[in-house]
Amino acid sequence: AQIPLQEMPTQAPEIRVANMQEVAIGYTESQVRIEAMRCLQCKNKPCIAGCPVAIDIPAFIDKAAQGKFAESVEIIKQSSLLPSICGRVCPQESQCQLYCTVGKMHKDIDQSVSIGRIERFVADYAREHELEKVPQVGEPTGRRVAVVGTGPASISAAADLRRGGHEVVMFEALHKAGGVLVYGIPEFRLPKKIVEHELNNLVAMGVEIRRNYLVGKTRKISDLMEKDGFDAVFVGSGAGLPKFMNIEGENYIGVFSANEYLTRSNLMKAYAVGEALTPLFDSHKVAVFGGGNVAMDAARTAKRLGAEEVTIVYRRTEVEMPARKEEVAHAKEEGVQFLYLHAPLRITANEKGRVNGVELITCELGEPDASGRRSPIEIAGSEKMYDYDTVIVAIGNDSNPLIKATTDGIEVNRRGNFIVNEETCETTLKGVYAGGDIVLGAATVILAMGQGRKAAKAMNDYLQTL
Amino acid sequence: MNTILSKQRLSAEVFRMEIEAKEIAEARKPGQFIILQMGGDFGERIPLTIADADPVKGSITLIFQAVGETTHRLALFEVGDTIENLLGPLGKPTDIKKYGKVVCVGGGIGVAPLFPIVQGMKRAGNEVKVIMGARNKDLLIMEEDMKATADEVIVVTDDGSYGRKALVTEPLKELCEQYKPDCVVIIGPPIMMKFAALTTKPYGIHTIVSLNTIMIDGTGMCGGCRVTIGGKTKFVCVDGPEFDGHQVDWDNMLLRLGTYKSKEQEAHHRCHIGMHIKEGEA
Ligand SMILES: Cc1cc2nc3c(=O)[nH]c(=O)nc-3n(C[C@H](O)[C@H](O)[C@H](O)COP(=O)(O)OP(=O)(O)OC[C@H]3O[C@@H](n4cnc5c(N)ncnc54)[C@H](O)[C@@H]3O)c2cc1C
Ligand SMILES: Cc1cc2nc3c(=O)[nH]c(=O)nc-3n(C[C@H](O)[C@H](O)[C@H](O)COP(=O)(O)OP(=O)(O)OC[C@H]3O[C@@H](n4cnc5c(N)ncnc54)[C@H](O)[C@@H]3O)c2cc1C
Ligand code: SF4
Ligand code: SF4
Ligand code: FES
């Protein structure tokens, strides 16, 4: 008989909207073994092609099925440094699980082996039972490397550079390390103690983390290399600069970028009302513009912060939405509403400048655009006013220009992303490498991590030649 | 790191602190600011201008007014205490160059961030006149420093308890007419900057203002500090803090500063109870 797909146990929707704790509770030991047994151990391993860092998926699943969780996670760690994070946040349905034979057999991708959930379980298990091996640090080389930023690209680069025996110093602008994993993705999706654990591992390996240090302002890259004795630099400064739509009323009170909204709640802990000094805006009816993970996180955060009504306003339909499927499903369970095929035209406010409405226009889907998705076309005459008191704009980020502006020799493309050698991640400036969102535009955790590792490998080679 | 080296009370609610911050002291230029955070996970990040710096000693000077919870907490810090988190220098430096005749206008606490600009403008070879204003005599700060640096200092108070009884706009208008400055720099409460910028506008004088919006990261990531300048959205922390005063949408900026007013008042009240400060005293 066929083994049924093991559903992920979660906090009930009506309970979780009133707390910040993780929604998905995680498999039990018996559940994970049952789910792992659904894997057919395909000879041609199609799932591996879907994983950006090519984890040996059937191998780690096999160990999980046998209950050998520590061995399972060791297999994953050969390719990915952050399995408890990627197991939670990878868009599995468009990566590894998209190619899974089991899903194909059922003609239903939701029936694929739950690769991410198994990955998450074994990684959590190893962490909680202290079964992880502290990575071996190489013989000291006398070389020093500066790593800019502390997001997933930088974390993985720092670990591999340290393994290479170099002295590694990370520089982080904010007062807390972790990048988007800390200030962007909310606690209910990625507990911060997991990110902290990964950073502690780096420190245990001898990596120095300097917070409150904005490279380009506190000191320039050229100073780090010429005056402070760093032989090479890795830049993982992320995306930065939130995009706005340039529509009327965007600077009224109650209009936020998703970055600000989420940073207030996550980094500044504003959700802890009465304890945190950073205030929150009182919202009752919230419109979130956008359809990606950032929009889902903002909408679900708004719900948890007490908004009665939260609506995702998206120009296309559910099929085109780039967010992880699971997050969309969770958002719906939590009562977030979805208004598809609508685009904002302007935001209105009362006499005190506080948002009181949004004008939306209905769209229909036209021909596919450059992204391959059908583009929304506004239907003239379909404009309509809607009541909202808060607007959260989650339509993406532009790349942060600070390092480019303060570093001679680094070249960027039209969108401001660093131009790098695809094989080595080296920028146009010798000895300076880059990876993650600053190169890829807004991408994913696993892609950022993959680039960090690729760069570190090339940097280890480069540093040997010095 | 970030140890407080000295502390003075300049007026009832204004404090000067010299803080050890080697890298910031070396890199900073007039017009730039820092962001500080303290009190563990729950503390707020607040921006303060670097009023002075000593690169040899490796220290910066902050001058701040205790207006809300975080600035009150900071005021309780003593020499030897350390500030957990201090980031800077942030923002673009003031466009200091030789204009010819410069008038610098400071209101309230704005006199502090104005001081390094007055120094810079003098060093660049300008003739500099200063207009400084405060609500009353007790709130006036740095008069001696200004007098020692500028070519002329005009002091005004709202209530006439010291200097001339006027708002800064009055002597500013006179100077626009008689002295005809080439550049005016204005730093103070937003409402004062608005009216001072309106005063210079008819004369077409290049007018620089330093905007003090609400900020979080200070690195261009959150967009919370945005203002409308000449119809376009700009981020004060990276595009500013200084802008052409005639291009600023003041009304929008003033509205945005009030976003969290009621919550801040609650917190302010709480911190007064904790600090045994009588209402109205600070
Ligand atoms: C709300 C949200 C939800 C997301 N959800 C998902 C998801 O579910 N799945 C997924 O795969 N991806 C998701 N992403 C995308 C993912 O988080 C990013 O692709 C990834 O974090 C990029 O990693 P990074 O290392 O390039 O940079 P970041 O994580 O952006 O980190 C960059 C760090 O560098 C610091 N920095 C920047 N400039 C400087 C400087 N000059 N000096 C010093 N420090 C500097 C920043 O403060 C920051 O801490 C999400 C993103 C957001 C915003
Ligand atoms: C670039 C920049 C430079 C600054 N330089 C100085 C300086 O050198 N000295 C100084 O005393 N202050 C300066 N400020 C203002 C200072 O940041 C605020 O006074 C501080 O954030 C208040 O924090 P709080 O927690 O004590 O008060 P809160 O409780 O946050 O606020 C108390 C009161 O201050 C108002 N307020 C809140 N934030 C700001 C703000 N950013 N600007 C103006 N008013 C605000 C509130 O509306 C409220 O009325 C500067 C601001 C900016 C943006
Ligand atoms: S890292 Fe992501 S894509 Fe790769 S196997 Fe794990 S969940 Fe799938
Ligand atoms: S494709 Fe699916 S069934 Fe086949 S090995 Fe990979 S996970 Fe297992
Ligand atoms: S303070 Fe966040 S962008 Fe300026």
The value of Rg of chain B in angstroms is 18 Å
Tell me the overall shape of chain B: globular
- What is the chain-wise order of helices and strands of chain B? EEHEEEHEEHEHEEHEHEEEHEHH
Radius of gyration of chain A: 23 Å
Query: How do the strands line up in the largest sheet of chain B?
Result: 10-9-8-7-11-12-15
The small-molecule ligands in this entry are:
flavin-adenine dinucleotide, iron/sulfur cluster, FE2/S2 (inorganic) cluster
- Summed up, the helix count of chain B is 9
Largest sheet of chain B: 7 strands, mixed
How are the SSEs placed, and which strands pair?
The complex is a heterodimer of chains A (466) and B (282).
Chain A lengths: L12 H4 L12 H9 L8 H5 L6 H9 L3 H9 L5 H7 L11 H5 L9 H14 L15 E5 L3 H12 L3 E5 L8 H4 L8 H13 L3 E3 L10 H6 L5 E4 L19 E3 H9 L18 E5 L3 H12 L4 E5 L11 H9 L3 E3 L2 E8 L5 E14 L5 E5 L5 E3 L3 E4 L8 H5 L25 E3 L2 H4 L4 H21 L1
Parallel strand pairs in A: 1-2, 1-4, 2-3, 4-14, 5-13, 6-7, 6-13, 7-8
Antiparallel strand pairs in A: 9-10, 10-11, 10-12
Helix pairs in contact in A: 2-4, 2-8, 4-5, 4-8, 5-8, 6-8, 9-18, 13-14
Chain B lengths: L3 E8 L2 E7 L1 H6 L5 E5 L7 E10 L4 E7 L3 H7 L9 E6 L10 E7 L3 H13 L3 E8 L8 H7 L2 E6 L6 E2 L3 H10 L4 E5 L2 H11 L5 E5 L15 E4 L2 E4 H4 L2 E3 L5 H8 L3 H15 L7
Parallel strand pairs in B: 7-8, 7-11, 8-9, 9-10, 11-12
Antiparallel strand pairs in B: 1-2, 2-5, 3-4, 3-6, 4-5, 12-15, 13-14
Helix pairs in contact in B: 5-6
What report would you give on this structure?
The complex is a heterodimer of chains A (466) and B (282). Chain A is an alpha/beta fold. Chain A is built from 18 helices and 14 strands. Chain A has helices at 13-16, 29-37, 46-50, 57-65, 69-77, 83-89, 101-105, 115-128, 152-163, 180-183, 192-204, 221-226, 258-266, 293-304, 325-333, 402-406, 437-440, 445-465, and strands at residues 144-148, 167-171, 208-210, 232-235, 255-257, 285-289, 309-313, 337-339, 342-349, 355-368, 374-378, 384-386, 390-393, 432-434. In chain A, β7 (309-313), α15 and β8 form a beta-alpha-beta unit. In chain A, α4 (57-65) packs antiparallel against α5 (69-77). Chain A is globular. Chain B has 282 residues and is α/β, with parallel strands linked by helices. In chain B, 29% of the residues lie in helices and 31% in strands. Chain B has a 7-stranded mixed sheet with strand order 10-9-8-7-11-12-15, with helices on both faces. A 6-stranded antiparallel sheet of chain B has the order 1-2-5-4-3-6, with helices on both faces. In chain B, α5 (169-178) packs parallel to α6 (190-200). The longest helix of chain B is centred in the C-terminal third of the chain and has 15 residues, at 261-275. Chain B is globular. The model of chain B is unreliable at 273-282 (pLDDT under 50). Chain A binds chain B through residues 173-175, 183, 211-214, 217-219, 240-242, 244, 246, 250-254, 256-257, 259-260, 263-264, 267-269, 272, 275-281, 352-353, 400-402, and chain B through 23-24, 27, 37, 39, 41-45, 69-70, 84-90, 216-217, 219-224, 226-228, 233, 235, 238, 249, 251-252, 255-256, 258-260, 263-264, 267. The structure holds flavin-adenine dinucleotide (2 copies), iron/sulfur cluster (2 copies) and FE2/S2 (inorganic) cluster. Residues 39-42, 45-47, 57-58, 100-102, 113, 115 of chain A line the site of one iron/sulfur cluster. One flavin-adenine dinucleotide binds at residues 89-90, 148-154, 171-174, 179-180, 184-185, 213-216, 236-239, 262, 293-294, 297, 324, 400, 402-403, 436-437, 443-446, 448 of chain A.
